[in-house]
Design a protein that fits this description.
Blueprint: H1 2-9, H2 17-28, E1 33-36, H3 43-53, E2 54-55, E3 58-62, H4 69-73, E4 74-79, E5 84-89, E6 96-100, H5 107-111, H6 113-119, E7 121-124, E8 127-130, E9 136-141, H7 154-157, E10 162-164, H8 171-179, E11 191-192, H9 193-204, H10 210-221, E12 229-231, H11 235-251, H12 259-270, E13 275-276, H13 278-282, H14 287-297
Parallel strand pairs: 1-9, 1-10, 2-11, 3-6, 6-9
Antiparallel strand pairs: 4-5, 7-8, 12-13
Pfam families: AAA_3, AAA_lid_2
Domain ATPase AAA-3: 32-162
InterPro entries: ATPase_AAA-3, CbbQ/NirQ/NorQ/GpvN, ChlI/MoxR_AAA_lid, P-loop_NTPase
Protein backbone atom coordinates (compact mmCIF):
# COMPACT_ATOMS: atom_id res chain seq x y z
CA UNK A 1 0.00 0.00 0.00
CA UNK A 2 2.77 2.45 0.91
CA UNK A 3 4.67 1.45 -2.22
CA UNK A 4 1.69 2.61 -4.29
CA UNK A 5 1.78 5.97 -2.52
CA UNK A 6 5.54 6.26 -2.98
CA UNK A 7 5.40 5.55 -6.70
CA UNK A 8 2.58 8.04 -7.22
CA UNK A 9 4.52 10.84 -5.54
CA UNK A 10 7.60 9.99 -7.61
CA UNK A 11 5.65 10.91 -10.74
CA UNK A 12 6.20 14.55 -9.79
CA UNK A 13 9.16 14.43 -7.42
CA UNK A 14 12.12 12.95 -9.31
CA UNK A 15 15.08 11.30 -7.64
CA UNK A 16 14.07 11.91 -4.02
CA UNK A 17 12.85 8.47 -3.00
CA UNK A 18 14.71 8.51 0.32
CA UNK A 19 13.18 11.86 1.30
CA UNK A 20 9.70 10.72 0.24
CA UNK A 21 10.10 7.58 2.35
CA UNK A 22 10.98 9.65 5.39
CA UNK A 23 7.99 11.96 4.93
CA UNK A 24 5.70 8.92 4.67
CA UNK A 25 7.32 7.52 7.83
CA UNK A 26 6.49 10.75 9.67
CA UNK A 27 2.90 10.57 8.39
CA UNK A 28 2.57 7.00 9.69
CA UNK A 29 3.93 8.12 13.08
CA UNK A 30 1.64 11.16 13.42
CA UNK A 31 4.71 13.34 13.04
CA UNK A 32 5.50 16.64 11.34
CA UNK A 33 8.31 17.58 8.96
CA UNK A 34 10.61 20.59 8.74
CA UNK A 35 12.05 21.02 5.23
CA UNK A 36 15.08 23.29 5.25
CA UNK A 37 16.54 24.05 1.85
CA UNK A 38 17.33 26.76 -0.67
CA UNK A 39 14.51 28.02 -2.95
CA UNK A 40 13.60 26.15 -6.10
CA UNK A 41 14.56 22.58 -5.22
CA UNK A 42 10.99 21.26 -5.01
CA UNK A 43 9.87 21.62 -1.38
CA UNK A 44 6.40 22.86 -2.27
CA UNK A 45 6.12 20.37 -5.14
CA UNK A 46 6.83 17.52 -2.73
CA UNK A 47 4.17 18.61 -0.25
CA UNK A 48 1.55 19.14 -2.96
CA UNK A 49 2.31 15.73 -4.47
CA UNK A 50 1.80 14.06 -1.09
CA UNK A 51 -1.44 15.95 -0.50
CA UNK A 52 -2.80 15.07 -3.94
CA UNK A 53 -1.86 11.41 -3.54
CA UNK A 54 -4.03 11.04 -0.42
CA UNK A 55 -7.73 11.86 -0.45
CA UNK A 56 -7.58 14.40 2.42
CA UNK A 57 -7.98 18.16 2.78
CA UNK A 58 -4.97 20.39 2.09
CA UNK A 59 -4.07 24.01 2.78
CA UNK A 60 -1.02 26.16 2.13
CA UNK A 61 -0.12 29.02 4.46
CA UNK A 62 2.41 31.64 3.41
CA UNK A 63 4.03 32.82 6.62
CA UNK A 64 4.81 36.55 6.73
CA UNK A 65 5.89 38.94 9.53
CA UNK A 66 2.37 40.38 9.86
CA UNK A 67 0.62 36.99 10.16
CA UNK A 68 -1.41 36.67 13.38
CA UNK A 69 -2.43 33.54 15.32
CA UNK A 70 -6.07 34.15 14.38
CA UNK A 71 -5.08 33.99 10.70
CA UNK A 72 -4.08 30.36 11.31
CA UNK A 73 -6.50 29.14 13.96
CA UNK A 74 -9.66 30.99 13.00
CA UNK A 75 -11.75 33.69 14.63
CA UNK A 76 -15.25 34.17 16.06
CA UNK A 77 -17.27 36.72 14.09
CA UNK A 78 -20.42 38.38 15.42
CA UNK A 79 -23.52 37.95 13.27
CA UNK A 80 -25.99 40.80 13.95
CA UNK A 81 -28.87 38.83 12.42
CA UNK A 82 -28.98 36.23 15.18
CA UNK A 83 -26.93 38.11 17.77
CA UNK A 84 -24.40 35.28 18.09
CA UNK A 85 -20.71 34.73 17.46
CA UNK A 86 -19.87 32.19 14.76
CA UNK A 87 -16.47 30.57 14.50
CA UNK A 88 -14.76 30.83 11.12
CA UNK A 89 -12.13 28.13 10.75
CA UNK A 90 -8.59 29.05 9.76
CA UNK A 91 -6.34 27.17 7.31
CA UNK A 92 -4.95 24.95 10.08
CA UNK A 93 -8.29 23.10 10.05
CA UNK A 94 -7.00 20.89 7.24
CA UNK A 95 -5.38 17.48 7.27
CA UNK A 96 -2.14 18.24 5.43
CA UNK A 97 -0.87 21.77 6.03
CA UNK A 98 2.04 23.37 4.17
CA UNK A 99 3.54 26.07 6.42
CA UNK A 100 5.67 27.90 3.87
CA UNK A 101 8.68 29.88 5.20
CA UNK A 102 7.64 29.31 8.80
CA UNK A 103 10.61 31.27 10.15
CA UNK A 104 9.36 34.50 8.55
CA UNK A 105 6.56 34.99 11.06
CA UNK A 106 6.74 36.25 14.64
CA UNK A 107 7.38 33.96 17.65
CA UNK A 108 3.82 34.66 18.84
CA UNK A 109 2.37 33.20 15.65
CA UNK A 110 4.88 30.36 15.60
CA UNK A 111 3.85 29.37 19.13
CA UNK A 112 0.21 29.06 18.06
CA UNK A 113 1.27 25.92 16.20
CA UNK A 114 2.50 24.14 19.34
CA UNK A 115 -0.86 22.84 20.52
CA UNK A 116 -2.04 21.79 17.09
CA UNK A 117 1.21 19.91 16.35
CA UNK A 118 1.32 18.14 19.69
CA UNK A 119 -2.35 17.56 20.54
CA UNK A 120 -3.99 17.71 17.07
CA UNK A 121 -6.50 20.22 18.38
CA UNK A 122 -7.10 23.97 18.37
CA UNK A 123 -8.39 26.03 21.30
CA UNK A 124 -10.05 29.36 20.53
CA UNK A 125 -12.23 31.38 22.95
CA UNK A 126 -12.22 28.48 25.44
CA UNK A 127 -13.57 26.09 22.81
CA UNK A 128 -11.48 23.12 21.67
CA UNK A 129 -11.75 21.86 18.11
CA UNK A 130 -10.40 18.40 17.31
CA UNK A 131 -8.76 18.11 13.89
CA UNK A 132 -9.49 15.29 11.50
CA UNK A 133 -7.09 12.37 11.31
CA UNK A 134 -4.67 11.96 9.61
CA UNK A 135 -3.14 15.38 10.29
CA UNK A 136 0.33 16.60 9.35
CA UNK A 137 2.21 19.91 9.23
CA UNK A 138 5.06 20.19 6.74
CA UNK A 139 6.96 23.43 7.28
CA UNK A 140 9.63 24.93 5.04
CA UNK A 141 12.38 27.43 5.70
CA UNK A 142 15.33 28.89 3.81
CA UNK A 143 18.67 28.24 5.58
CA UNK A 144 20.59 31.11 3.92
CA UNK A 145 18.21 33.99 4.61
CA UNK A 146 18.57 35.64 8.01
CA UNK A 147 17.25 39.19 7.61
CA UNK A 148 13.59 39.42 8.56
CA UNK A 149 13.45 35.89 9.94
CA UNK A 150 12.67 34.52 13.40
CA UNK A 151 14.55 31.28 14.22
CA UNK A 152 12.31 28.56 15.61
CA UNK A 153 12.70 28.09 19.39
CA UNK A 154 13.89 24.80 20.84
CA UNK A 155 10.40 23.84 22.04
CA UNK A 156 9.01 24.19 18.52
CA UNK A 157 11.88 22.37 16.83
CA UNK A 158 11.34 19.44 19.18
CA UNK A 159 7.76 19.12 17.88
CA UNK A 160 9.03 18.30 14.40
CA UNK A 161 9.47 14.59 13.86
CA UNK A 162 12.27 15.05 11.33
CA UNK A 163 14.24 17.81 9.70
CA UNK A 164 14.98 17.05 6.05
CA UNK A 165 16.75 18.66 3.12
CA UNK A 166 15.99 17.85 -0.51
CA UNK A 167 19.27 19.12 -1.95
CA UNK A 168 20.02 19.75 -5.60
CA UNK A 169 19.21 17.04 -8.17
CA UNK A 170 22.08 15.24 -9.88
CA UNK A 171 22.73 15.77 -13.58
CA UNK A 172 20.52 12.91 -14.82
CA UNK A 173 17.65 13.94 -12.54
CA UNK A 174 17.89 17.53 -13.75
CA UNK A 175 17.77 16.33 -17.36
CA UNK A 176 14.62 14.36 -16.54
CA UNK A 177 13.06 17.56 -15.20
CA UNK A 178 13.47 19.17 -18.62
CA UNK A 179 11.81 16.23 -20.37
CA UNK A 180 8.80 15.92 -18.08
CA UNK A 181 5.57 17.80 -18.77
CA UNK A 182 4.57 18.58 -15.20
CA UNK A 183 1.87 21.07 -16.20
CA UNK A 184 -0.29 18.27 -17.60
CA UNK A 185 0.58 15.75 -14.89
CA UNK A 186 -2.27 15.96 -12.38
CA UNK A 187 -1.87 13.37 -9.66
CA UNK A 188 -4.91 11.43 -8.51
CA UNK A 189 -5.39 10.11 -4.97
CA UNK A 190 -4.23 6.53 -4.55
CA UNK A 191 -4.99 6.23 -0.82
CA UNK A 192 -7.62 7.54 1.54
CA UNK A 193 -7.22 8.96 5.00
CA UNK A 194 -8.68 5.71 6.33
CA UNK A 195 -5.90 3.78 4.57
CA UNK A 196 -3.29 5.81 6.46
CA UNK A 197 -5.05 5.19 9.78
CA UNK A 198 -5.20 1.45 9.08
CA UNK A 199 -1.51 1.43 8.08
CA UNK A 200 -0.64 3.03 11.43
CA UNK A 201 -2.24 0.06 13.17
CA UNK A 202 -0.02 -2.27 11.15
CA UNK A 203 3.06 -0.22 12.09
CA UNK A 204 2.28 -0.85 15.76
CA UNK A 205 2.60 -4.61 15.14
CA UNK A 206 6.21 -4.35 13.93
CA UNK A 207 8.51 -6.14 16.39
CA UNK A 208 11.42 -4.36 18.09
CA UNK A 209 13.81 -6.58 20.04
CA UNK A 210 15.22 -5.61 23.43
CA UNK A 211 18.69 -5.29 21.89
CA UNK A 212 17.38 -2.84 19.29
CA UNK A 213 15.56 -0.83 21.98
CA UNK A 214 18.77 -0.65 23.99
CA UNK A 215 20.64 0.52 20.88
CA UNK A 216 18.13 3.35 20.35
CA UNK A 217 18.36 4.47 23.98
CA UNK A 218 22.18 4.43 23.99
CA UNK A 219 22.35 6.51 20.81
CA UNK A 220 20.01 9.13 22.26
CA UNK A 221 21.57 9.21 25.73
CA UNK A 222 25.05 9.76 24.31
CA UNK A 223 23.91 13.16 23.01
CA UNK A 224 23.26 14.28 26.59
CA UNK A 225 26.81 13.85 27.88
CA UNK A 226 28.83 14.63 24.75
CA UNK A 227 31.37 17.42 25.24
CA UNK A 228 30.45 19.01 21.93
CA UNK A 229 26.71 19.18 22.64
CA UNK A 230 25.16 21.82 24.87
CA UNK A 231 21.62 20.44 24.81
CA UNK A 232 21.05 16.75 24.09
CA UNK A 233 18.09 14.91 22.62
CA UNK A 234 14.93 14.77 24.74
CA UNK A 235 12.98 11.59 25.58
CA UNK A 236 10.55 12.74 22.87
CA UNK A 237 13.40 12.22 20.41
CA UNK A 238 13.94 8.67 21.69
CA UNK A 239 10.26 7.87 21.20
CA UNK A 240 10.33 9.44 17.73
CA UNK A 241 13.30 7.34 16.64
CA UNK A 242 11.67 4.21 18.05
CA UNK A 243 8.38 4.73 16.19
CA UNK A 244 10.16 5.83 13.00
CA UNK A 245 12.13 2.59 12.81
CA UNK A 246 8.93 0.58 13.13
CA UNK A 247 7.36 2.57 10.28
CA UNK A 248 10.43 2.03 8.12
CA UNK A 249 10.27 -1.72 8.76
CA UNK A 250 6.62 -1.67 7.68
CA UNK A 251 7.38 0.30 4.50
CA UNK A 252 10.10 -2.19 3.62
CA UNK A 253 7.66 -5.08 4.03
CA UNK A 254 9.18 -6.44 7.25
CA UNK A 255 7.59 -7.19 10.61
CA UNK A 256 10.77 -6.39 12.55
CA UNK A 257 13.33 -3.58 12.95
CA UNK A 258 17.04 -3.87 12.09
CA UNK A 259 20.03 -1.76 13.25
CA UNK A 260 20.26 -0.42 9.69
CA UNK A 261 16.79 1.11 10.10
CA UNK A 262 18.03 3.07 13.10
CA UNK A 263 21.17 4.22 11.31
CA UNK A 264 19.08 5.36 8.33
CA UNK A 265 16.85 7.58 10.50
CA UNK A 266 19.06 8.61 13.43
CA UNK A 267 20.52 11.87 12.10
CA UNK A 268 17.34 13.24 10.49
CA UNK A 269 15.33 12.49 13.63
CA UNK A 270 17.80 14.03 16.10
CA UNK A 271 19.84 16.71 14.31
CA UNK A 272 17.35 19.54 14.93
CA UNK A 273 16.77 18.49 18.55
CA UNK A 274 20.36 18.94 19.73
CA UNK A 275 22.33 22.17 20.12
CA UNK A 276 26.11 22.16 19.87
CA UNK A 277 28.49 24.24 21.94
CA UNK A 278 30.11 27.47 20.73
CA UNK A 279 33.45 25.65 20.57
CA UNK A 280 31.98 23.03 18.24
CA UNK A 281 30.65 25.75 15.94
CA UNK A 282 34.03 27.51 16.04
CA UNK A 283 35.60 24.25 14.85
CA UNK A 284 33.27 24.31 11.86
CA UNK A 285 31.31 21.27 12.97
CA UNK A 286 27.56 20.93 13.31
CA UNK A 287 25.14 18.56 15.04
CA UNK A 288 25.06 16.15 12.11
CA UNK A 289 28.83 15.65 12.28
CA UNK A 290 28.67 14.84 15.99
CA UNK A 291 25.75 12.46 15.49
CA UNK A 292 27.78 10.63 12.85
CA UNK A 293 30.60 10.27 15.39
CA UNK A 294 28.18 8.86 17.97
CA UNK A 295 26.73 6.47 15.40
CA UNK A 296 30.20 5.24 14.40
CA UNK A 297 31.39 4.79 17.98
CA UNK A 298 28.35 2.93 19.32
CA UNK A 299 28.48 -0.89 19.09
CA UNK A 300 25.83 -2.34 16.80
CA UNK A 301 23.72 -5.22 18.23
CA UNK A 302 24.24 -8.46 16.32
CA UNK A 303 22.73 -11.91 16.35
CA UNK A 304 19.39 -10.91 17.87
Amino acid sequence: MMDKLLKNIEKEVIGKREIIEKVIIALLCKGHILLEDVPGVGKTTLVRAIARSIDVSFSRIQFTPDLLPADLLGVSIFNPKDGKFHFQKGPLHSQIVLADEINRTSPKTQSSLLEVMQEQQITVDNHTYKLNDPFMVIATQNPIEHEGTFPLPESQLDRFFMKLSLGYPNENEELLLLNEDFENNSLKPVLSGEDIINARKEVEKVYVSEAIKSYIVKLCRKTRNHSGIELGASPRATLALYSATKALGYIKGRDFVTPEDIQFLYIDTLSHRIFVTAETRYQGRDGKAILKDILNSTPVPVGD
